[in-house]
């Protein structure tokens, strides 16, 4: 089932209507995406005297960055660059030569947030060669890797990196390799009809001021794109995991991994590789917010639930950050997801023999089987290091998460018939400190007493 129930749709529309009225937004569009399909679309306000539609364009601001980041990851997967490469290896001569591609993607480069010159979001932009020529020393605000510091300039550099690697404008590469394969034909660098006019709403009166719109030149990769509700729904489905062949699922999952924490009063948000991250009501959401003069937009996806939410608005400020999360909460309250049915599977005898208790010293762990000969190792009582492991062709297992992510688990059989687990030098045995196993440091000959 894709579409929401009528009762749910009414509650969702009520929340959207309250946002549009209370925050005084000229027009507002929102959507929920479930299972890769649009489950609900809602609209309030007016664009040129009419209700906006699924095909009405709004500017999406920094959501553009995520699309540029996908192009960078495609280049990485092809072997055209490495995330640990310094920018100077591919674009020599900038003041950011020593900053890595990963630093730029995760906003940990330490570069200044904005480019030198006038307020770039409200003025026409310069071409890349002019922007780069105007970058002098003093662009760094922090040591690379020290902390999360959002940098629009950093993504301008990534856009130019894409352009040089593809020998075409960055937007052409993104369009041909990302947008078109995902069916996002309504996403463009400049507005096309029908589109919303961007406005500032007077803080103390119900009047509007049209905001400027320009081609931002070399800064465009930081926030140039316009999109539609239906196109942004396709993007939301992509972030949730419906990659459409644009990226491998593993690469997209890598982009959603936290690379930096946005350190505020509490650690609830951060940044991956071109994707913002946030926790809400037990959900781990990935996506991006966007703002440009006259426009606000947000995309959040919950890959674990195959669910997403978005909104688009033509106002410079005012839409509450709680809107998207409230829409997710309404859906959860009205149509809670059913747990997947449990079905019995199959297991090889050699794996069944490994299930049950194991001991890391005196600490008890349980080994359970996962699909495709995978295993999990979890502490009894929940205190300790838990990880899942995927089977490898050589008979070992590779850690997927937790403390042992990327580490190798081996099951070792001794000539005498004993068995133990070697997990990156740690030895797990069938009994606490089994003297018959090669426990590092040995086992006291006197035994337990």
From TrEMBL:
Enzyme class (EC, first level): hydrolase
Limits of the DUF7586 domain: 348-430
Keyword Hydrolase attributed: yes
Range of residues in the leader sequence: none
Keywords annotated in UniProt: Hydrolase
Molecular functions (GO terms): hydrolase activity
EC number, as in UniProt: 3.-.-.-
Presence of keyword Hydrolase: yes
InterPro entries reported in the protein's UniProt record: AmpC-like, Beta-lactam-related, Beta-lactam/transpept-like, DUF7586
Ranges for domain Beta-lactamase-related: 18-325
Pfam families: Beta-lactamase, DUF7586
Segments forming a coiled coil: none
PANTHER family assigned to the protein according to its UniProt record, in alphabetical order: D-ALANYL-D-ALANINE CARBOXYPEPTIDASE (PTHR46825:SF7), D-ALANYL-D-ALANINE-CARBOXYPEPTIDASE/ENDOPEPTIDASE AMPH (PTHR46825)
Protein name: Serine hydrolase domain-containing protein
Source organism per UniProt: Microtetraspora malaysiensis
Native organism taxonomy: Bacteria, Bacillati, Actinomycetota, Actinomycetes, Streptosporangiales
């Amino acid at each position: 089932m894709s579409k929401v129930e009528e009762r749910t749709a009414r509650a969702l529309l009520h929340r959207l209507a309250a946002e549009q009225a209370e925050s005084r937004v000229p027009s507002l569009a929102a959507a929920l995406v479930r299972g890769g399909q649009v489950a609900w679309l809602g609209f309030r306000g007016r664009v040129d005297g009419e209700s906006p539609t699924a095909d009405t364009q709004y500017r999406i601001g920094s959501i553009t960055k995520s699309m540029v980041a996908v192009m960078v990851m495609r280049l990485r997967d092809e072997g055209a660059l490495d995330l640990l490469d310094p920018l100077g290896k591919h674009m020599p001569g900038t003041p950011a030569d020593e900053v890595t591609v990963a630093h730029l993607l995760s906003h940990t480069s330490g570069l200044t947030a904005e480019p030198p010159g006038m307020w770039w979001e409200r003025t026409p932009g310069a071409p890349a060669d002019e922007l780069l020529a105007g970058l002098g020393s003093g662009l760094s605000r922090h040591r690379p890797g020290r902390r999360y510091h959002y940098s629009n300039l950093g993504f301008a550099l990534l856009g130019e990196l894409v352009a040089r690697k593809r020998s075409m404008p960055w937007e052409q590469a993104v369009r041909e390799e990302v947008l078109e394969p995902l069916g996002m034909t309504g996403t463009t660098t400049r507005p096309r009809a029908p589109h919303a006019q961007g406005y500032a709403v007077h803080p103390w009166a119900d009047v509007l001021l049209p905001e400027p719109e320009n081609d931002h030149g070399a800064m465009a990769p930081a926030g140039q794109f316009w999109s539609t509700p239906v196109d942004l729904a396709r993007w939301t489905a992509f972030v949730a995991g419906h990659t459409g062949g644009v990226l491998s699922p593993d690469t997209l999952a890598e982009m959603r991994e936290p690379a930096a924490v946005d350190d505020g009063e509490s650690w609830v948000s951060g940044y991956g590789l071109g994707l913002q991250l946030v926790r809400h009501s037990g959900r781990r959401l990935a996506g991006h917010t966007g703002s440009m003069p006259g426009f606000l937009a947000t995309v959040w996806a919950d890959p674990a639930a195959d669910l997403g939410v978005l909104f688009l608005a033509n106002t410079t400020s005012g839409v509450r950050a709680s809107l998207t999360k409230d829409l997710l909460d309404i859906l959860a309250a009205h149509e809670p997801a059913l747990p997947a049915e449990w079905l019995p599977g199959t297991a090889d005898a050699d794996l069944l023999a490994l299930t049950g208790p194991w001991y890391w010293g005196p600490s008890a762990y349980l080994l359970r089987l996962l699909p495709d000969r995978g295993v999990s190792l979890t502490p009894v009582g929940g205190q300790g290091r838990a990880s899942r492991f995927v089977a490898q062709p050589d008979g070992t297992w590779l850690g997927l998460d937790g403390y042992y992510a990327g580490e190798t688990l081996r099951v070792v059989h001794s000539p005498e018939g004993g068995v133990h687990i070697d997990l990156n030098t740690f030895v797990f045995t069938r009994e606490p400190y089994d003297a018959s196993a090669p426990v590092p440091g040995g086992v006291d000959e006197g035994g337990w007493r």
